[in-house]
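Quick one: structure for this chain?
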Amino acid sequence: MVDVSRNLLLHELFVSQHRWLTSRLLRHADDLHDAQDISSETFEQVVAGRMDPGLIEHPRAFLIKIGQRVVYRRRRERELQARLLEAVALLAEDTAPSAEELASVTQAVVRLDEALYGLPASVREAFLLSQLDGLSYDEIAVQLQISSRTVARYMKQALSCCWRNGFF
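Got it. Here's what it folds into:
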C-alpha cells in the first residue's frame, strides 16, 4: 500500500512540476532536448531516492537543487572527456587507444571524479598531483605548502575513498 501511495505522489509531482522544471533547466542546457533529458534524469533520481515525496515541503526548490546537480555533473563529465581527448590527441597514432578503450577510460575517470568529489579540495589536489603528475609526497608538500605528513594523511583519505568506491 505504501508503494502505491508513493507512486501516486511521485506521479503527481511529475505531472505538476515537469514542464516548469524543464523550462527552468533550459537556462543551463544546450537546447530544449538537453533540458528535457536533465529534467528526466532529475525525476529519475527522485524516484530512485528513498525520500517520501509527501514530505517535500517545497517541491520546486527540491527539484531545482537536484536538477542543478545533474547539470553540474554533466558539465564536469564533458570537461573531463574534453581533457582526455586533448591528451589522446597528443599521443602518437600507434599508441592512441581505440574508441572502446577511450570510452572505458573516460567512464573510469568520471567515476573516479565523482568518488573524489566528496573529499576536501586539498585532498583531491594532493591525490591528483601524486597520481597524474607523478609527484612525490615531498614535492606535493612544497607545492601545496603543507607538511609531507599532511600529504601522507591526504593520500590515505583519497586512497580509502577509492577503495570504498571499488577502484582497487
